[in-house]
Amino acid sequence: MKQEELNEILAQHKLWxxxxxxxxxxxxxxxxxxxxxxxxxxxxxxxxWSIRLREADxxxxxxxxxxxxxxxxxxxxxxxxxxWKANxxxxxxxxxxxxxxxxxxxxxxxxxxxxxxxQKxxxxxxxxxxxxxxxTNIYTFQADGHFAxxxxxxxxxxxxxxxxxxxxxxxxxxxxxxDYSEEEVKWYGSWIQLVTNMxxxxxxx
Length: 205
Fold this sequence. Notes:
Blueprint: H1 3-18, E1 138-141, E2 148-151, E3 154-157, E4 160-163, H2 164-177, H3 182-203
Antiparallel strand pairs: 1-2, 2-3, 3-4
């Protein structure tokens, strides 16, 4: 797709966001935008299903509520991009630069995040069930209960997400609230303590 055509789609999408009776929602399903310059672009609520954005520049782009299911974002630059509540289910984010990106409440089920850079990214309440998190700075754990993961100072177990310090203080109460057995509470408590120690060691290096 030529840059001029892409610019026109973005302009029409901007009008649609301001007044959905004007302009037109960006419909870029399966489009090939490999290496495209989309820095700062507003693609909020855009239909980007299975789009090819390998090595694209999406720094500081607005992708809130965007449908990126199955998108190819291999090595894409998404630094400080806003992906709040974006659908990234089954997306390919291998080697993607997500430093400082807002992924709060994003759907990342079955996404491939192998070696993605997630430093300072906001992953609070994101759904990482089934995601490939190998070679990232995310720790995971699952006993007989809910899937648990940790990123920097945040731990999420099932639908409960809190800072590490809050989990340390309240994991027993939270476990009882969700009807975990004493053994399950013990397992998750041990994992929370393990994560705490690993993060402390990282911070002291």
